[in-house]
Amino acid sequence: MDSKILQISDLTHRYGRGAPVLQGLNLSADAGEIIGLIGLSGAGKSTLLRCINGLVTPTGGTLEVFGENVPKLREKERRRIRRRIGMIFQEFNLVDRLTVIKNVLVGRLGYTNTISSCLQIFTRSDIALARDCIAQVGLADYENVVVRNLSGGQKQRVAIARTMAQGAEIILGDEATANLDVRTTDSVMELLQELAHKNKTTLLLSMHNLDVARRYCPRIVGLKHGILTFDGASSALTDDVVTEILE
Questions:
Q1: Contact residues for 186 (Cβ-Cβ < 8 A; gap 6+)
Q2: How many Å apart are CA 166 and CA 106, to the nearest integer?
Q3: How far apart (Å, rounded) are the C-alpha atoms in residues 175 and 233?
Q4: How far apart are CA 18 and CA 210, in angstroms?
């Protein structure tokens, strides 16, 4: 078994009879790595993330997460893998009418039985874990605040706390800071950076802001028309390389 937490080989995907969205992509990641994923809209970034968490089945190649070839797994087995993969989104993907703690407890649903999951019944240990995660993201005083009343930065912190409660070993970010101002973006990225360093959480973050990607992601992967055109240190992401990826 490969020691890599993520190992992708010759990955290809197309939707229906359309042009390939991913073409012969090779990518690997170690535990605790922070990888920024850049490219124009339509480059295949979101599709790649959805392939990794098993929501999309690629049309070719291999994709191993935690040593298991995800495309070959049945849906029940994919759900088991998906429990260990958290996602944060540009639009937060929270339930606005619920409180902070109830949103964070959603991260525990994959660990409860069907009846408890449907009724949203959680154990004392789950509730204690959720409270601890909320405190770690700096929202200890907001447990019972309805999410719709939070700022964008606070909502993203709730989303991160949910992945922490989930016990995610990989966090996939789909333009997670796109709707945040500069100061809030820095705050969220510093929190994610701390998770990677403290918990060995692997981060693969699709990003539109190159300056933020350079500052917070030691490794950058560039996609163009579904092809991996750059994979290297952020210090090697020169203006010429950026032009090649984004032209």
A1: 212
A2: 8
A3: 20
A4: 29
Return the pLDDT at 4: 86
Where would I find the beta strands (DSSP E) of 15-113? 20-29, 34-38, 60-65, 68-69, 85-89
Residue 204 has pLDDT above 80, yes or no: yes
Give ∠ CA 53-58-62 in degrees, rounded to 5: 85
Cα–Cα distances in Å, from 145 out to 103, 106, 155, 203? 11, 16, 11, 28
| Alpha-carbon span 147 to 29, nearest angstrom | 33
* Residue 111, pLDDT above cutoff 80: no
Contacts of 169 (CB under 8 A, 6+ apart): 5, 31, 66, 84, 85, 200, 201, 202
The helix or strand, by DSSP H or E, that contains position 178, with its residue range, turns out to be none
Token pair of 186, please?
A: 């820095």
pTM, to two decimals: 0.90
pLDDT of res. 1: 40
Residue 37 is given by DSSP the state: E
Helices (H) and strands (E) counted in the chain, each on its own, are: 9, 10
Q: Are the C-beta atoms of 202 and 170 separated by less than 8 Å? A: yes
Where is 42: in which H helix or E strand? none
pLDDT digits (tens, 9 = 90+) for 39-73: 999 999 999 999 999 999 999 999 999 999 999 99
Chain centroid to CA 157: 13
CB contact set of 97 (below 8 Å; sequence gap of 6+)? 146, 147, 148
Mean pLDDT of 155-183: 93
